[in-house]
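Could you help me review a protein record that somebody else here produced? Here is the record exactly as it was handed to me:
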Amino acid sequence: MARAPVICVTHGGGPMPILNDSSQKDITLSLSTKVPKILKLGTPEAPKAIVLITAHWETEFVTISNGSKHDLYYDYGGFPAETYKLKYNAPGSPEVARAVAEALKTAGLKSVMDSKRGWDHGVFIPLLLINPAADIPIVQVSVLRSQSPSDLFAMGRALAPLREQNIAIIGSGSASFHHISSYFNGKVNMPSFQRMQKQWATTLARTIGMPQADQREESLLAWKRWEGSAQMHPGGAAEHFSPLVVCAGAAGDGVAKGWDDMMMGVPMSAFYWD
C-alpha cells in the first residue's frame, strides 16, 4: 500500500482563488497542478481518504467531522452571490473519522466527534481546485484554540500512522503570513516589512526543512520568539499557522519540499513530505 503524503497549503483569501482573482493566481495554479501531482490523483496510488486540518475551526479539544456527508459552511462575507452556492460533494467517512479518533486516543489526546458542522472554506475552497472530481472521502479536523505548538505537534505525530493506510494529511492555512490589516494599510509594501518578512520566512523554511522530527519540534516550540513573528501572526491570532505545526508533527523524520506563491505582494510558503 502506498504511503500518503503530508501537505500544508495556503488556501488564499476567502473564495478568491476560485474567482480567478489576480492576487491569488499563484495559489490557484499550485492548488490545481502541484498538489494533485503530490497526491498522485488519477493513479492507483491516490489516497483512499484525506484528513484536512483547517485553520478556520478552533476548538478546545481536537474535533473531527464524522458525518457520511457534510454541507458547506460559507464562513466568509462580502463576496459575489455565486460563492454562497458553491458545492463540493465529496463523501465524508465515519470510518476514517473513527481511525483519527483512535490514533489520537492512542497518543493520549482527547477528541470530539461532530456530525453537523459544515466543511468551512479552509476545506472546500482548496479542494475544489485540488480534486474537483470530489471522489475522495474527506474528514475535516479542527486545530486547538490554545494554539499550543507542543499540543499541535503532538496531534500531528499522533496522526502520522494514518499515512501508512494511504490516508493523506493536508493542513490548510496561511503559515507564512496572516495579518489582514497589513495588506490594507500598505505595510506589506514597506521595505522594512519586506526585510523582516524575508528573514522570518528564512527561519521558517530552515525549521521545516530539519530532517529530524525532534529538532523540528524543538524549533517550532519557540516560533513565537522568532524575530517578526508578531508581525506575521499577531498574538492570539495564530490559527493560520497551526495547521503547519500539525503537519510538521505528522511528517515524522524526513526532508520537506515546498514552494512559494505570491499573494498580494507577500510570498506564501507551502510545504510537503512525500
User: Anything to note?
Assistant: DSSP finds nine helices and eight strands in the chain. The chain has a mean pLDDT of 95. The two ends are 14 Å apart (CA to CA).
